[in-house]
Amino acid sequence: MRGRDRRIAATLLSCAAAAAVAVVALPSAARAGTAAPVGASPDADTYVTAAFPTANNGSSTTLRVGATPTRVSYLRFTVQGLAVPFAGATLQLYATAGGGDLSVSPVADSTWTNAMAYPGPTPGAVVATHGAFAASTWQSADVSSVVTGNGTYSFAVTSASSGVFASSRAGTATAPQLLVTPGTTPTPTPAPTVTPSPTPTPKPGPPHVMVIVMENQEYGAVIGSGAAPYINSLATSYAAATSWFAVQHNSPTDYLALISGSTQNLPATPPPYSTLTVVDELAGEGIGWRAYMEDMPSACFRGGGSGGYVKYHNPFMYFSSIVNTPSQCNSIVPFATNFASDLGAGTAPPFLFVVPSLCNDMHDSCLPLGNPVAQGDQWLRTQLPTVLQSSWYRSGGVVVITWDEGTTRAGINQGSGGHVPTVVISADAHLAYTQAGDHYGTLRAIEEVYGVGLLGASADLANGDLRAAF
Predict the structure, then answer these.
(1) Contact residues for 170 (Cβ-Cβ < 8 A; gap 6+)
(2) In whole angstroms, what separates CA 335 from the centre of its chain?
């Protein structure tokens, strides 16, 4: 079972090729006389963290700095084509969230790659500092003492505060910039104006992703079934993963795999577990989340069941970091009194996890329909319009509907949980998605969207990656 493997080391490809050098080479006349700043984007940028020392963060959508745990961001720029002394140089970072402070240091070693592991090259003496700053703002650091001529320059960005988002990445609308202002020398003719890099449009807030987990149905029992006309209409209108699988024939372990990248060796190793989950990662980055459990009687309910709610379909209650932290545990709420109202009021947080009751998730055969597939299809037909008409969804929302396990022993990469339906709903999701994957590949996609580390078996590409279906 891949769920027993708790490796954090990621295998993502480096983003260095995607973040191509954006150095502006000035015309000869401009080199002689202009003082307009010239912007360069990083040819490499990444971060390392003590929390996941072997993780490859090269695909993260943001750079991060912080003190608890230690996080250091690295940026490398190439400056070329400037033939006069520099009048100044400024490193500009777009803050995706507020922070307490930033410090910038030069790094002598410029051979590092986006795939490097913690601790990374040793930073030199601090050359620029910045105090507290707000989210969605550009922050500047004067690096004129370091950038004095053409060449390659590496910088490390650190912080004495915890949980700081430092900057969006190269290749984004708000990529970091090294702005170099050339000096001026007398020229016989006026120099043409060199237009600096335009001020990027501020990046929107965190992505919106919802996961809805249904139960115990093989792919062919739902996709193509006359008992599920609504789900099939979604599968043909949006994206349907045709080769997606569960990890085990065991509901609790499949739920654990979906949020932690591991089955946690359940039942041999009983809960609670001290390992991280994706919502711990989100909370650490200031990204809100909520889990809506149908028939759950109260927030953070610790009982084994109530009505159609069962604890073993609520993986969040298996982790000590959640149940022992009120702000985390109270994010697990009853569906009936919170789901529609949160979406209607525009207060739903970025990441949502939804578990219907035993009667509505296709687990049990219940009245009024007496057919688990038909009952679940009708529940989705009733609930999803609230989602699709909400501002949460219209702000780039993605909805993943998946099943915890199937009824066969089909699987990939040593998995055996069955071939399960998985539908991805978004403005960009269309047609069938034929790549193979499992619950770890679903978790990987969520982690990639939010730019957090890859937990456990989600780092293994042999388990697939649902991100392309989003």
Answers:
(1) 15, 18, 19, 41, 42, 43, 44, 45, 176
(2) 25
Both tokens assigned to 382: 């009733």
The values of phi and psi at residue 332, to 5°, are -100, 110
192-240 pLDDT, tens per residue?
555 555 554 444 679 999 999 999 999 999 999 999 999 999 999 999 9
3-state helix, strand, coil in the chain (%, to 5): 20, 25, 50
Query: Per residue in 247-301, pLDDT tens?
Result: 999 999 999 999 999 999 999 999 999 999 999 999 999 999 999 999 999 999 9
Residue 359 corresponds to which amino acid?
C
User: H helices of 166-216, where?
Assistant: none
Please report the beta strands in 257-321, taking only residues with DSSP state E, as ranges in sequence order.
289-293, 305-306, 309-310
Q: Which of 74, 175, 91 is nearest to 129 (CA)?
A: 91
39 by DSSP, 3-state: which?
strand
- The model's confidence at residue 27, banded by pLDDT at 50, 70 and 90, is very low
Look up residue 174 and give its two tokens: 């708000």
Q: How far is 236 from 244, CA to CA, in rounded Å?
A: 16
pTM of the model: 0.62
Phi (first) and psi of residue 354, to 5 degrees: -125, 130
Q: With left for phi above 0 and alpha for psi between -120 and 50, is residue 81 left, alpha or beta?
A: left
Q: How far is CA 94 from CA 105, 172, 175, 181, 208, in A?
A: 18, 11, 7, 20, 21
